[in-house]
């Protein structure tokens, strides 16, 4: 049975105390750390790179780190992220000159590989490379910023992606990213997702004490997901 994974997007965390933020969200029950890399070229924003990934590992983070590359070109940064401790590395097919080669490179570097689909990017990019994909990430917002609203057409795309995965027989995670919150996470799971990125939906909902600031929101998300069986 596939387990549901909650992946807080640290884009919405307090960068002035990132290590503590990641510790707190993992202690609250999150499963993996979603790490958004933006280059002010492929997307109109600039964020963090391998140094920060390595710093989180040195800080003691042992949970999987799910690196979402919103960069172009893609290939030359992959070995750096692998060395920095990335677990998953996903990229946008439009940003790679040779998609099959990039997927192979990620696995050769010892990481799990993934393709990311913008809202208007067709799933046909999966044709011929499914055997080299560990994760399909569907963007339910246009990439570049946290705090946007979920684009409803993504529900149908999730259903199609779920069908592709189930028909393939490969062990591929289906991740959703953008506008995912406690109040829509059940519907997103019902459409086929098993890995749930949430930035503002988690980090903008602190509860009373610092050490337990994310407990209640993660609990609320788990309870909502538990209402949907797969
Ligand atoms: O990759 C991105 C945006 O490009 C996402 O990971 C966002 O950071 C998700 O943030 P919310 O929509 O959950 O606030």
Instruction: Please give the CATH architecture.
Output: Alpha-Beta Barrel
Q: Uncertain regions: pLDDT < 50 for 5+ in a row?
A: none
CATH class: Alpha Beta
Helix content: 25-40%
**What's the N-to-C terminus distance?**
8 Å
Average of the residue pLDDT scores: 96
Question: Which helices and strands occur, and which strands form pairs?
Answer:
Blueprint: E1 5-8, H1 18-27, E2 33-38, H2 50-59, E3 65-70, H3 78-84, E4 88-91, H4 99-108, E5 112-117, E6 135-139, H5 154-168, E7 173-177, H6 185-190, E8 195-198, H7 200-203, H8 215-226
Parallel strand pairs: 1-8, 2-3, 3-4, 4-5, 5-6, 6-7, 7-8
Helix pairs in contact: 2-3
The structure holds 5-O-phosphono-D-xylulose.
Core attributes:
32% helix; 230 residues; 8 helices; TIM Barrel; binds 5-O-phosphono-D-xylulose; alpha/beta
Question: Care to give the gist of this entry?
Answer:
This protein is an alpha/beta fold.
Verbal overview:
This protein has helices spanning 18-27, 50-59, 78-84, 99-108, 154-168, 185-190, 200-203, 215-226, and strands spanning 5-8, 33-38, 65-70, 88-91, 112-117, 135-139, 173-177, 195-198. It is an alpha/beta fold and 230 residues long. The chain has a single domain, classed as Alpha-Beta Barrel (TIM Barrel), CATH 3.20.20.70. The protein has an eight-stranded parallel sheet. α2 runs parallel beside α3 (78-84). The longest helix has 15 residues, at 154-168. Bound molecules: 5-O-phosphono-D-xylulose. Residues 9, 11-12, 34, 36, 68, 141, 143-148, 177-180, 197-201 line the site of 5-O-phosphono-D-xylulose (5SP). Residues 9, 11-12, 34, 36, 68, 141, 143-148, 177-180, 197-201 line the site of 5-O-phosphono-D-xylulose. It is an enzyme of class 5 (isomerase).
């Amino acid at each position: 049975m596939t387990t549901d994974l909650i992946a807080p997007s640290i884009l919405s965390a307090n960068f002035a105390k990132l290590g503590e933020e990641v510790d707190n969200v993992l202690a609250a029950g999150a499963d993996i750390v979603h790490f958004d890399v933006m280059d002010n070229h492929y997307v109109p924003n600039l964020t963090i790179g391998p140094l920060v990934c390595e710093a989180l590992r040195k800080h003691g983070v042992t949970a999987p780190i799910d690196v979402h590359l919103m960069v172009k070109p893609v290939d030359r940064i992959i070995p750096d992220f692998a060395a920095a401790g990335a677990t998953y590395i996903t990229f946008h097919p439009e940003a790679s000159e040779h998609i099959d080669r990039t997927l192979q490179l990620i696995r050769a570097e010892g990481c799990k590989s993934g393709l990311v689909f913008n809202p208007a990017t067709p799933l046909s990019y999966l044709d011929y490379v499914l055997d080299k994909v560990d994760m399909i990430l569907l963007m339910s917002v246009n990439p570049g910023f946290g705090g946007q609203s979920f684009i409803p057409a993504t529900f149908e795309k999730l259903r199609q992606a779920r069908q592709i995965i189930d028909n393939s027989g490969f062990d591929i995670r289906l991740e959703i990213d953008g506008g995912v919150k406690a109040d829509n996470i059940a519907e997103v799971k019902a459409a086929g997702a098993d890995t749930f990125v949430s930035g503002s939906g988690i980090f903008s909902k602190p509860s009373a004490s610092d050490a337990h600031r994310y407990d209640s929101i993660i609990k609320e998300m788990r309870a909502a997901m538990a209402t949907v069986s797969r």
